[in-house]
Amino acid sequence: MLTRRSFFSRVSDGLMGAALAGLLAEDLGASEAMYDLTPKRPHHAPRAKAVIQLFMNGGPSQVDLFDHKPALEKYAGQPPSRDLAAEVRAVTDTGGLMPSPYKFSRHGRSGIELSELLPHLAGVADDICVIRSMYTTHLAHEAALYIMHGGRIVPTRPTLGSWISYGLGSVNQNLPAYVVLDDPRGPPTNFIQNWQSGWLPSVYQGTRVRSEGSPILNLRSKQECPGSVVELSRGLLKRMDTRHQEQHPGSAELQARIANYELAARMQMEATDALDISGESAAMMAAYGLNDENTASYGRRCLMARRLVERGVRLVQIYIEGQIWDNHNNLRPGLEYACGKTDKPAAALIRDLKNRGLLDSTLVVWGGEFGRLPIAQAPGANVGRDHGPSGFSIWMAGGGIRGGTVHGATDEIGYRAVENKVSVHDFHATVLHLLGMNHRNLVFQRDGRNERITDEFPAQVVTEIVA
Amino acid sequence: MMWCALFSLMSAGVFEDQVLPILRARCFSCHGGTEHSGGLSLETLEGILRGGKSGSAILPGRPADSLLLTMVVSGKMPSGKPKLSEAEITAIRTWIEAEDYQPPVTDRHVTAIFSAKCWVCHGRHRKMGGLDLRTRETIFRGGKSGTSVVPGKPEESLLLRRIERQEMPPPKMQEQYAVRGLTDDEVEKVRRWILGGAPAEDETPAALSVTNDPAIRPKDREFWAFRTPEQPTLEPVEGRSPLDLLMEEKKALVPAAPDLTLLRRVYFDLTGLPPSPEDVEAFDSDKDPGRYENLVDRLLNSPHLGERMAQGWLDAVGYSDSEGGTSSDQVRPHAWRYRDYVIRSFNANKPFDRFLTEQIAGDELFDYRAAASWTPEQMELLAATGFWRTAPDSTYSTEQNFVQERMDVIAGQLEVLGTAVMGMSLGCARCHDHKYDPIPTRDYYRLVAILTPAFDPFSWLPPVFPCLGVGANCDEKTTRYLRPENNPEWRETLAFNAPIEQRVSELKQQLEDKAKSYREKARIEKKLTEVNLCELEAIFEPFKKEKAALEEQIAKEKTRLKPLPLVRALFDLGPDPPPTHILMRGETSSLGALVSPGVPSLLSASTREYRVQPLPHSSGRRLALARWLVHPEHPLTARVIVNRIWQHHFGTGLVASPGNFGSMGVAPSNQRLLDWLAVEFVKSGWDMKAMHRLILISKTYRQQGGQDGFPLRRIEAESVRDSILSMAGRLNTTQFGPPDAFKALPDGEVVTDSTRRSIYVSHRRTQPLSLLETFDQPFLSPNCVERGHSVVSSQALHLMNGDLAQENSRFMAGRIIDRVGDDESSQVERAYLLAFARKPTGEEMKSATTALKRMQAEWLKTLQNDKPAEPLGKRGHWLALATLCHTLINSAEFLYID
């Protein structure tokens, strides 16, 4: 009785290739889906094969980084409009409009205006596209993260990364399709919920890979056991399982299970190799900032991301500890710390991908869950800025993105997106589009309903930023 | 007609010359003439402005916010036809931009604003300043400061003035009460409402009757799942139960499985644990021809039955020990009383109709407010309503406690009700009429209205205890817990905890004192002010150590605290429940028609109508729902639970989509059998154990494994862990009570030191036990009626390299040696009995003992280098046997039942 419900029924990351596919087709009939990570055909010719998402938890302040607003000088100290006031979270310590303390200048042939906080990014300005008109619908980190990753303000939905690995699978079966490199200093807000697969099969959730120590959970045994004993045990196990399988002819699941034990062994080798950066040249390490305490940790993960993408990993997300961009107070030291940690490695990643000819096929995305308001929070020596969901900036590069461009604009003070507004759903549709998928057609049947990352929200591919 | 008068105001020329032709050509086939798809007619400006079920089609002057434009730009409309050309879209956009007409503002528009931003202080529970903003009458009457609204005269209306000056809602209270100030748009709406003479809208909910409901076609009610099941009559056949006869109508049965295979199968099915070697031997030597039936009866009375069955029910209702919804994923400290209630109910074989009624309306079954001291049975009734308290709930956070998030909690609970109890997916109807099943949004919000007396979106109680920044006092009125303060258990617990709490507060004071001196130091040495504890410990290494030591002491003290017997229940918040409107597109700012409480009209024909009888202490709306659900003629309730019982025993239900019996679900593989079982179940008095027994003693269940017989199935996540502990002789069978703690290791693995069954280990949404998660313990979103089923390499890694399997293999080996001594054959035999409930065959014995002896030799070689204190031989033999046990734990035969 192999007929199980088509959704959620059969998931495997082992025993890849034609043998199993053939076996399953026989067993299950064409209508039964097998959920695995074998490569899937995209809907149209893809521009990008892989994605590296540099996720910036906390809400980077657009008016201090990407979105120069000279008008704020003019209005400095004036009280905000009623609409802006209605969006303030911490009502009691609201101040007036506040200009950025940082200077902006134009960079590259394209002349993109960037803040002095991003000197390294300025060096690759012609490769990036800054979207200045992103907006989201919730002012709390958690809910805004849910929508940024899962498409709605509620938890428990599959994340964009899960949809991508569900839609495309992976070309390397010895490594996870969707890798999460989190910060050894601590988990991001919402933690594992940022890369969960929700009601998609668990094979599509992000695999947390640590950049220090054993990279994958239980990749190695914690208890000592002589190699010769392990070999004896594996031999006996293989004999037992083969005999058991012979008693259950035609069970693809048992066959997949045996293959899984073999995959686990291969993974030990390949994951270790992919994440071992000791073979990289000293110049390469320096370029990523590995020789500097401030940038070493982030640089290390950016370098690992490149190595993983080189080996066919579909999606790598790099997270930072907590929410370092959440500058409610101490705006200046906060931003300088966050930029100091990430600016150089992110720019190095773009250069490195470009030099290796990988940038064309690798989409790099930089951004957080929202931006910040152009008014002061807690005015005084430790002044900061509160959450601003109505308008914020992100940038994208490579993978079919038109470099050296700026898309959309916020209003005069950088509070609300007004021109060529890009919703989170538009963003999701665009990423999928670049990967060769149509967001309306990437569906998963659940309780008789077609589920999508964009749900039923109107979403449009931002074609203007596609090269 | 007001609409007509307004036509003249509009730039009718542009519309008629440039837009109407486009609409006529491209949209009228669905939105013109007699076709009003989605309730929308695009033939006239009046129709466009009135809009359809998703609200107005355009917002004059605001193309970006106009649904019509959004739909044609995205290409979602015209549905299934080519997209509009750029020129056509531009024409529509230009017209909307130029349009300056503003539709009149009515009661309904301002209710949407007042309910979300004012009612918390001027509504059901508080009437600050004597002002109640819920009805026209009370708004006009005003409060202590006088009249609040003078129709037609905005400038004389105090209400508007205070809003305009941003005095209301008071900025100081906005965060605490999770409201925000009014936007320009909203202020403008209130002004125009007053200016327009504060027009009212007819707000009487439409009366519905089964025979006359325009939303449901008679044909819709004919679908098999929406009609009361009838029990097929069968000619009796000797040696065949009706179940087997009905099964054989679809497929021939294969011969029975070997007895020991059956033994292992039924043990896992009913208890989630393997039989012990003694159980195996006793069964094997039992010569009674009824030994299998006796075994089934014995296991049905095992205390482990409830634990096993409860897991499936808890999945279905989405039970978790944490709130979810935010990063802090607040723990639900008292949720376990509901878990215990479920286990006890299954063990006591509570009739299912009773079981369901208690969960849906336990608080309405007796007047708990009037009872001086609740009996244990009454405590159970209140704990049962924990059924409604399972969905992820972020509303303890002031940032995620807006009306939208409150509606999300209600939506989560309705999804649980729909998929776990009714076999219907209701979620779609929250935003639009259900596309496939005849469930209009109206019926979704009628279900919402059943819950709003308790889940009042405008007078919301936070779900956590103690309160976190929401409201000042923690009592029945400010949190969603019941406090049995008159019960002896309450007083005893308080007395027990008092000295411990005293000690904790002393320790906290010590920490504060220490921090104070370091802050001083930070100020002088580093010129830093307002340094929080984390920053402080980052700066001063000694403080970090002192803080850690004190915190450890505090944590240790706290573990001694006994939990107060709080009940995480659902209960009415008093008389005068809020009105419930349809929310267009599910948006809390777009109110549609007012609705009264009710159930899907679609199902009413098959059973009696939903009728509410108000109770002295409660609205009675949920009790009416429960009575409606357990009506013997209800088409779904019995089918849905019987189907899940079938799924429990066979892996797949007779309806393979257990949460959706509707048109998009999977048709039943054997409807006659399903209906026979459902009717039999109701006739038996909804007897759960009788239903299990009926299935388990059937020939269908006893078939041998294989593609045509009983399906090969992997044991569930909890059984993997519990069985390993059981084989190691370490399973602690203590039942009930607060959940055991888990801990996160530095490498991210989440483990527990507990050796109790997995159902008693704390299940936190953000930190599930890694082993269980890997073996498909569901991520509850909000619930799960059918578990996923994965075969992934992380499972292999867990069992090969994980501590649980490795450590317990050593315990298992130790207990085997204690029992049978050093003889390898006896050791192998016992290991097989423990892991597979059978003895090894001759060939297996040879293969295993050979491997074991070679493992002994290899271990000895290694140990000779290590030179441990104990005798090498003993240790080597033990470790080798542990490796053998570890191999068995990794084998398919252990993980699968057939």
What would you say about this model in short?
With 467 residues, chain A is of the alpha/beta class.
How is this structure best described in words?
The complex is a heterodimer of chains A (467) and B (898). Chain A has 467 residues and is of the alpha/beta class. Chain A has helices spanning 18-28, 62-65, 71-75, 82-85, 119-122, 141-150, 160-168, 227-246, 252-275, 282-287, 293-310, 331-355, 424-434, and strands spanning 11-12, 50-55, 94-97, 104-107, 112-115, 128-135, 178-181, 207-208, 315-318, 362-367, 371-372, 375-377, 387-388, 392-397, 405-407, 409-410, 417-419, 422-423, 444-446, 449-451. Chain A has two domains: 11-39 and 219-275, no CATH class; 41-212 and 276-465, Alkaline Phosphatase, subunit A. Helices cover 32% and strands 16% of the residues of chain A. In chain A, strand 19 (444-446) and strand 20 (449-451) form a beta hairpin. In chain B, strands 1-2 form a two-stranded antiparallel ribbon. Chain B has a two-stranded antiparallel ribbon with strand order 3-7. The longest helix of chain B is centred in the middle third of the chain and has 39 residues, at 488-526. Chain B is globular, with a radius of gyration of 33 Å. At the A-B interface, strand 1, helix 4, helix 6, helix 8 and helix 9 of A face helix 5, helix 10, helix 11, helix 20 and strand 6 of B. Strand 1 (11-12) of chain A pairs parallel with strand 6 of chain B, so a sheet runs across the interface.
